[in-house]
Amino acid sequence: MGLACSVDEGSDLYKVILAFLLVVAVSVLAKDPKAKGTSKIDIDLSRMSSTMVFAQVNQMVTTPQKFVGMRIKMKGVFSSYYDNETDQRFYGCVIADALACCSQGLAFSLAKPRKFPDEYPAEGETIVIIGYFDNVKEESGESYPIIRHAEILKE
Questions:
Q1: For the whole prediction, is pTM greater than 0.85?
Q2: Which pLDDT band, with edges at 50, 70 and 90, does 6 fall under?
């Protein structure tokens, strides 16, 4: 009983293994990374201390290019702001530090649009959001970070 096999047997086994690996690779690559439950969280702000959140969000705001495309989870309070100039409403998740003096927050846009205010949390309500970090550049040259394709989870 040996491990030697003929060229025909070996080449058939090689073809089967190769076909299996191709099927696995295609199925992994075909998944939508934004589909619910298919992506890991790259940065989980909800599990960090207030000091760490402050430092992490500050880094995300000052060097956004390092974080674009990362999946972010954060816990904070819901906030919204209506800009009369642009006739647009912005939504945010704000995290206060232990002394509530140095709040940090990020804007977010939902994956599935909702009607404001009926289908949004109340102002100041604790929420958890999960989405993908992006950096929006406006025509004026200004830019701001935002969590896109977000979903809101009530605390």
A1: no
A2: very low
